[in-house]
Amino acid sequence: MWWTVWLLFGSCMAAAGLAAARQLRGYEAFLTAGRRHGEWAIGFSIAATAVGATATVGLMDEAARKGWSAYWFMGAAALGLVIQGATVAARIRTSGVRTFGELVELQLGRSFQTASSVLIVLGWTAIIAAQFKAAGELAVVLGGSGSFRMGAFLAAVFILVYTVPAGNRAVIATDGLQFLLIALGLAAAALLAARQPDEMERAPEMVSTARVGWSGFLHPVVIIGGLYVLSPNLVSRSVAARDGAAARGGAFLAALILAGVGLLVVWTGIRAAGGGIGPPVLSMLLQRAGGAWKWAVGVGVLAAIVSSADTTLLVTATIAQNDLIRRHWVGGVRLWEAALALGALGLVILAPRATLFDFLFAAYEMFTPAMVPLLLVSFYASRGVARPWAWGAFLTGGLLGLYGPSIGWLRRGGWVAREGWPLKEEVATAGFLLALLLALFGAWRGGRKGAA
Predict the structure, then answer these.
(1) Nearest-5° angle of CA 175, CA 99, CA 385?
(2) Residue 23 and residue 166: Cα distance in Å, rounded?
């Protein structure tokens, strides 16, 4: 029965996306959705994109393990959106750019546009893979052990069906419906958790409330918060707003939504752990749920997966075509979408043991330290950032962010010891802070050079 429900879901998404995009034609409209959306549409679209597999399935598991300290994942995202709304959201919209790469070129030049675009294509493919992996795992819970590959494949097909013909307008048009399904599914999951008998005394180890050190606090604030100040997905929403005020208001609205959703998801994970349910929390809850409850939660989580993956897939394909190939051709974006979807499915198959957080942070910890400090400083550097220092910031942040995925790969291959190495979270955070210092110094040097 699960595949029937999924096909019905996919058909509804396709119909909604294609119907909303009937009057949009041309490359500009395909990328920017016509630049005509108000703050409510932008806010809910950002929220639907942000509340993906990691912010639901993964965060429930983190909450069951770590308690309320897991909230910083969503709390940092909300904080980043507040900063984005207060600083750069309106400026991105009024700049006239269509993609993140064009924004980078405007602020830093073409060479940085190329470098950042390569980084995004590589990293964002891992994020797409995380969503497809979650879809496969959800299919297993709903349909049995043989459903993993089919679930991941169907999720990819759903997204391609409406984004390939209609682009960004179809994504934004479906986000409202998807967020409604997400909200209903998360509410149902919370009620399921609340119905479990309280066994806290029998499972105290499952709800850790240990204090979070400075490194545990700074890492999500810097890496996740920084991403939600400036990222390709957020730029795609800012450029779709009707004006700067709508872009700014949408960011503030999304921040409020994410703060509330984070509280609900973390509470659900903690309450489930108190009832004796450990990770994977969602799978265990669904196994104990009746028919209607099971499908309400399942469809809600599927909507979360698809709403995050569709934006990420389309944005990545757009950057590949517009900012790397540099040819304004809708057909090229569509071909890139299909290729990236296949690549992400390949990653899911080749790395079956990787968790959702592994995929997500592999991308975030490379991109955020490399690009966010430098690009943010460039907005306020009246004379620009001196090029040697700009490259220093980019390379320092990117290489230190690459430490986590690299050391993990070397450990799995048995080439380095598992102990005695710095934590990847600390290295990525240090990379961000060093890149910020280098960018600030580069702005100062640029100002001095311009003044001279």
Answers:
(1) 130
(2) 10
Place of tokens 């043989």: 146
CB of 304 within 8 A of CB of 138? no
Element (H, E) at 101: helix 100-108
Domains of the chain: 2-352 (1.20.1730.10)
pTM of whole model > 0.85?
yes
Span 312-340, pLDDT tens digits: 999 999 999 999 999 999 999 999 999 99
Phi-psi region of 33 (alpha: psi -120 to 50; beta: other; left: phi over 0): left
* Cross-strand partners of 241: 37
Q: What is the CA angle 84-90-96, rounded to 5?
A: 125
Please state, in angstroms and rounded to a whole number, the distance separating the CA atoms of residues 417 and 99: 42
d(C-alpha 147, C-alpha 232), whole Å: 32
Residue 276 to residue 56: CA distance in whole angstroms? 19
121/100 Cα distance (integer angstroms): 12
Tokens 């999720």: give the residue.
155
Distant-in-sequence, close-in-space partners of 31: CB < 8 Å, separation ≥ 6 = 98, 99, 167, 168, 239, 318, 322, 333
Token readout for 427 is: 């290295």
Which residue type is seen at 286? Answer: L
166-182 per-position pLDDT tens digit? 899 899 989 989 999 99
User: What DSSP designation does 354 have?
Assistant: -
Tens-digit pLDDT profile for residues 400-423: 998 988 887 777 777 877 788 888
Give the list of residues 6+ apart from residue 194 with CB closer than 8 angstroms, or none. 271
Show the CA angle centred on residue 108, arms to residues 107 and 109, nearest 5°: 110
Find the helix or strand (DSSP H, E) in which 312 lies. Answer: helix 291-319
Looking at residue 202, its pLDDT comes to 40
